């Protein structure tokens, strides 16, 4: 929400307060019902979680498209504003996709521990090397945040491999959005600053 509120008005559709208000409407019930996501998850809570992530994803994609459209039309945006916008887009991209991976891998955080390795959507190094990692290991949110960060930085998986088509598709769209942000936005910002 904070990254979105920091965007210039030109890259936001409608009044800036609408998206944060919608996010609050969705996140408050989640925090009240199961604040640490360790309880029994209902279908409704899972649906609200996915809807919240989808809403933020759509807002990021729309903002990025507006920015690219403005750059292609030759609209002059101050260099510092472009740099800050690129940072906000990239950081939001990392957070959103970490949430997607965490929420969808093996049916979500509450179902994941009950699934065998063959039913997982991502293969982490700790799962692939049972001779090295002898204790039972399950990914936590930080592991998905790391996966998202490295995918947005390297534009490809690094140590965590996507196993299913949906996981590969998500990683591909994340890399495309990160690449667009860095190449188009940051390159233009550097050009403006020099």
Written description of the protein model:
The protein has helices at 2-5, 18-33, 43-72, 79-104, 125-128, 141-154, 165-193; strands at residues 122-123, 161-162. By secondary structure, it is an all-alpha fold. The mean pLDDT is 83. A two-stranded antiparallel ribbon has the order 1-2. Helix content is 63%, strand content 2%. α2 (18-33) packs antiparallel against α3, α3 runs antiparallel to α4 (79-104) and α6 crosses α7 (165-193).
Characteristics:
194 residues, two-stranded antiparallel ribbon, 63% helix, 2% strand, globular
Number of strands: 2
Described by the principal axes of the CA atoms, the overall outline is: globular
Would you tell me the structural class of the helices and strands? mainly alpha
Oligomer: single chain
Question: Layout of helices and strands, plus pairs?
Answer:
Layout: H1 2-5, H2 18-33, H3 43-72, H4 79-104, E1 122-123, H5 125-128, H6 141-154, E2 161-162, H7 165-193
Antiparallel strand pairs: 1-2
Helix pairs in contact: 2-3, 3-4, 3-7, 4-6, 4-7, 6-7
